Amino acid sequence: WGDPGLQAQLPLQPVMQAGARPPASSAKPRQGHFFEPVAQGSSPPPRADHCCVALGHRVVVHGGNSAHGPLDDLYVLDTSPWLRAWYWERVHPSGEVPAARFGHTIVRVSESAAVLFGGADDNEYRWYNDSYVLRFGGGEPGRGGSPTATHCVSIAAQPVGSPAAPMLPTPRCGHSLARLPVASSSPSPQLVLFGGSNTRGALNDLWIFDCDTMRWAPAAQADGAPPPPRAFPASTVVGR
């Protein structure tokens, strides 16, 4: 450690006070290459089958399964480019907070909101088909606003006073959920749900969630043969 040449090769990390954000850095990862970022703050404990979504420069992580059972915690990773190191923070949302679960999904619907659906808790032997909107206040993502102003809202299956019976996907975990591009025939954002599993086994049904009306509905009959029933599929949108 007393070698000046060795010291010149080692990056010097400034001493930070508790709760302080790291300063800006000029280091840039090479495009098209994986790298292991430096992350400070309070990182999430080990887990599997959690869900995560990117909102601007923030990555939101919820729940998952641990050695001690399902989790209900919420963490935000700030990846703002002006930080020397990415920064983890646990947030405690207000409102109707989702119960502990794993195998659920979360999808971005705006720059500051995401929809969470489904999951399971094998400790309680419960499978869920509930939906939540997570809203992040305190500044737009990526603009240095605090992510602690977070609010969860449980989504009603039908508007208040609607005579129609609620129409919901069956409870499940290990499904896929993706946001469809906004089309002229349907100007409101829509999410498409596929597959998963529950106590009856694997599923291959298809559902649509309308982000304006907050309603679920079975997808219209699609041409061709659907994929066989399966759990933990992956789906994404290609093109517009």
User: Span between N and C termini?
Assistant: 55 Å
DSSP helical segment count = 1
Task: Report the order of strands and helices.
Answer: HEEEEEEEEEEEEEE
Largest sheet: 5 strands, mixed
Beta content comes to 35-45%
- Poorly predicted runs are 1-18, 139-148
Assembly state of the chains shown: single chain
Number of strands: 14
Structural class: mainly beta
Q: What topology, given as strand order, has the largest sheet?
A: 1-5-4-3-2
Q: Give Rg in angstroms.
A: 21 Å
Approximately how much helix is present in the residues?
under 10%
Shape: globular
Mean pLDDT: 82
Molecular structure report:
- It is built from one helix and 14 strands.
- With 240 residues, the chain is mainly β.
- The strands form three sheets. A five-stranded mixed sheet has the order 1-5-4-3-2, with no helix packed on it. The chain has a five-stranded mixed sheet with strand order 6-10-9-8-7, with no helix packed on it. It has a four-stranded antiparallel sheet with strand order 11-12-13-14, with no helix packed on it.
- A hairpin with a 7-residue loop joins strand 4 and strand 5.
- It is globular and about 50 Å long.
Properties at a glance:
2% helix, 240 residues, five-stranded mixed sheet, 14 strands, globular, mainly beta
